[in-house]
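Task: sequence design from structure.
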């Protein structure tokens, strides 16, 4: 019994750590902000609350990628933050150059240390999760892959790496990458999404080619392998990417502010126009990969033919 309790305790600790890293992936260090500090600056708090909520939106089943979480509302809220705002709190969730320039060198150095620690810790966890059977050249999910855990860790690692690069740039210290420049970690892609991508004439993402050409980041960070800025730049050129504009050797360039749109109803990642229809399609098992419930199939088909799906779908689904 004691062994079972110990095993359950270990499992619980692993899941708690995964949740902590998942929060970092989608909200940065926002979860660490004390309540007293949060309520002390209403303008900064409004921005932090809205922006982190935008970053936590569920991913849509689409080839177009995710919308920029910094939309028109976030822009208005950030403009309300004046010189006396709590920019340290804002930097916990948005470590971009315009925010980091508001911090002192000491604060930027402290934030650099936070991101560096998360990046190294998450890289170690990725190394433990890596399976020799996983194909680095495609990163398509295979039987036996724990894609949920891997993608959560990859998201946390990439967020930490982006924050680390942003802090290095704000401190005018990007020359450190000449000695060691760990690459990004690619997410595992569902086979159906990969097949859809190929059906539209797409190929392997250029970022995946760079990832496959470089040593794994966990080996770079633990000193097992060497990867310099020159190595990353060469891999990017081979893949047809600009190493700076693609975020491999510099902070990613500022994206266009997204147009605000209401949060869509999602059924297994597919956007649906109406919450009632979404509930029916969900109960029927549409888009779940399982057989649709016979008693709800006629109603579900009527909704699909009526155009309740507003998101992207592969052509074979659209015509059937």
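Answer:
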């Amino acid at each position: 019994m004691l062994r079972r309790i110990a095993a359950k305790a270990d499992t619980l600790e692993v899941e708690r750590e995964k949740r902590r890293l998942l929060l970092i992936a989608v909200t940065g260090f926002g979860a660490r902000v004390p309540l007293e500090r949060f309520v002390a600056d209403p303008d900064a708090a409004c921005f932090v609350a809205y922006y982190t909520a935008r970053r936590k939106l569920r991913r849509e089943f689409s080839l177009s990628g995710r919308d920029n979480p910094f939309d028109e509302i976030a822009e208005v809220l950030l403009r309300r933050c004046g010189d006396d705002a709590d920019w340290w709190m804002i930097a916990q969730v948005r470590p971009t150059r315009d925010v980091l320039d508001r911090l002192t060198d000491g604060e930027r150095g402290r934030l650099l240390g936070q991101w560096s620690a998360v990046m190294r810790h998450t890289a170690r966890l990725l190394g433990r999760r890596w399976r020799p059977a996983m194909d680095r050249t495609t990163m398509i999910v295979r039987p036996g892959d724990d894609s949920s855990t891997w993608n959560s860790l990859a998201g946390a690692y990439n967020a930490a790496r982006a924050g680390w690069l942003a802090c290095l740039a704000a401190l005018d210290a990007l020359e450190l990458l000449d000695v060691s420049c760990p690459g990004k970690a690619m997410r595992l892609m569902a086979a159906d999404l990969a097949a859809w991508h190929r059906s539209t004439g797409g190929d392997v993402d250029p970022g995946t080619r760079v990832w496959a050409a470089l040593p794994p980041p966990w080996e770079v960070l633990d000193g097992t392998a060497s990867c310099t800025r020159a190595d990353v730049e060469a891999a990017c050129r081979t893949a047809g990417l600009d190493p700076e504009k693609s975020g491999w050797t510099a902070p990613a360039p500022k994206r266009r502010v997204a147009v605000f749109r209401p949060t869509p109803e999602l059924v297994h990642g597919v956007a649906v126009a109406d919450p009632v229809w979404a509930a029916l399609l969900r109960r029927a098992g549409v888009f779940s990969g399982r057989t649709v419930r016979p008693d709800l199939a006629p109603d579900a088909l009527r909704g699909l033919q009526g155009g309740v799906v507003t998101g992207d779908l592969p052509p074979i689904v659209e015509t059937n």
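Residues 265-319 form one domain.
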